[in-house]
Amino acid sequence: MNLESVNDKIKAIKYIMENDLIVPQMLEEARADLKKYVGMKDALLNAMKTNPEPNFPEEVEIDSTYTDPEPPVHPLINPASRHYEMIDSVEAILRMEQMYSTQELMVWANISAMKYRLRIGHKDDVAKEASKIAGFEAYYKYLEQRL
């Protein structure tokens, strides 16, 4: 991370905190992030004072077969369905991920999957409800990988 991107992070966090754009549950995390980025900025500035012009090798071998890994597909976001998108164009599930811990979301995913299991065949088409069960189970596994 370079100095410019660290400064951008600091500015963004300060703006969010100063304008009360953060839910109370996230305030402590924002303070911790701000402290972390200020520390990174100080470390970068000290490194620049010590070694203002780093020595890089003349030639760098580039692996032409490398491709960036595909980001994991979020199991609960359907790009064709915009009704869960909030006013600020953020998906509701992504906002929930900012507000709740991974463990809390895992409990919610488990409970939601069980709800659809218990009512299968009594409300919506069985295939539709089975699809929802699979979606919440996939979301649980997706969250498990984040631990």
How would you characterize this protein structure?
It is extended, with a radius of gyration of 22 Å. The protein has two domains: 53 residues; 72 residues, no CATH class. The two termini are 23 Å apart. The longest helix is centred in the first third of the chain and has 27 residues. The model has no long low-confidence stretch (mean pLDDT 81). With 147 residues, the chain is mainly alpha-helical. It is built from five helices and no strands. Helix 1 packs antiparallel against helix 2 and helix 4 runs antiparallel to helix 5.
User: What value does the Rg take, in angstroms?
Assistant: 22 Å
Domains, number: 2
Distance linking N and C termini? 23 Å
Binned, the helix content reads 55-70%
Secondary-structure element pattern, one letter each: HHHHH
Number of helical segments with 4 or more residues: 5
Shape assignment:
extended
Number of strands: 0
Structural class: mainly alpha
Query: What's the main sheet like?
Result: none
Poorly predicted runs are: none
Strand content: under 5%
Let me know the average pLDDT.
81
What brief labels describe this structure?
61% helix; 147 residues; mainly alpha; 2 domains
What's the gist of this structure?
The protein has 147 residues and is mostly helical. 61% of the residues lie in helices and 0% in strands.
